[in-house]
Structure formats: structure tokens, C-alpha cells
Amino acid sequence: MNDTKGAAIVQDLGRRLLTDLSYALVECEDCGKVRRFGFEQLKTVQEYGAVTLGDFSSRAACIECRRFTQRRNVTIRPVWRCDTLSAVA
Ligand SMILES: [Zn+2]
Questions:
Q1: Mind listing the pLDDT tens digit for each residue in 25-69?
Q2: How confident is the model at residue 1 (pLDDT cuts 50, 70, 90)?
Q3: Quick one: which of 13, 52, 72, 88 has the fewest CB in 10 Å?
Q4: Contact 34, 27 (CB under 8 A)
Q5: Distance from the CA of 70 to the center of ligand 1, in angstroms?
Q6: What is the residue-wise DSSP string for 4-67?
Q7: What is the predicted pLDDT for the residue at 82?
Q8: Alpha carbons 58 and 26: distance in angstroms, whole number
Q9: 76 CA distance to ligand 1 centroid (A)?
Q10: 22 CA to middle of ligand 1, Å?
Q11: Single pTM value for the model
């Protein structure tokens, strides 16, 4: 383990399992739409092959904006089961 701050923290978050999530908020930076991924939605994401938060963040997109652009300008705010830590991935 190393204790360096910054990218390492994001990488650690990216390796965390979706099954550890209580829920996640996916916020679109372009239109401001916030989508809540609760248990059922996260289960669907996992059925499509995403295992970690990193997998999820590389697939997450705004359904509204995706109709007009390939850009995926979304921020994921995970809320973990085991704590109330909220961070930007
Ligand atoms: Zn959007």
C-alpha cells in the first residue's frame, strides 16, 4: 500500500465493487440531470458486465445527452453501504 494522495484514491475507488454500493448518483455536467442508481439499477449494470465502480464509470452516460452526442460528461457520486463516504469518481 502507498499513502500518496490524489490519483491513487480515485484508483482505489475505481477498484471498489458495485456490490458494496448502497446507491450511486450519476450527475450529468451538461444538462444537470441526476439519475439515481439504486439496488435494481446497479444489478442491471452488473448484468451488463460491470463489476467495479471503474467499470461503471467507463460506461455511465446521460440518457438524455446520449441522443445528441457521444460525449459522456457525467460525474458519479457513490454512496457505500458500509459508510456514508461520498466521493467523486
Ligand atoms: Zn445530460
A1: 999 999 999 999 999 999 999 999 999 999 999 889 998 898 888
A2: very low
A3: 88
A4: yes
A5: 11
A6: --SHHHHHHHHHSBGGGEEEEEEEETTT--EEEE-HHHHHHHHHTT--BHHHHHHH---HHHHT
A7: 73
A8: 12
A9: 13
A10: 23
A11: 0.74
CA 25 – ligand 1 centroid, Å: 13
CB 55 within 8 A of CB 19: no
Which comes out higher in pLDDT, residue 8 or 2?
Answer: 8
The residue to which cell 454500493 is assigned = 21
Q: For residue 29, which amino acid is it?
A: E
Distance of CA 59 from the midpoint of ligand 1 (Å): 14
pLDDT at residue 13 tops 80: yes
Nine-digit cell string for 7: 490519483
Set of cell numbers at residue 52 = 467495479
Which residue shows C-alpha cell 454512496? 79
Beta strands at 21-28 and 74-80: parallel, antiparallel or unpaired: antiparallel
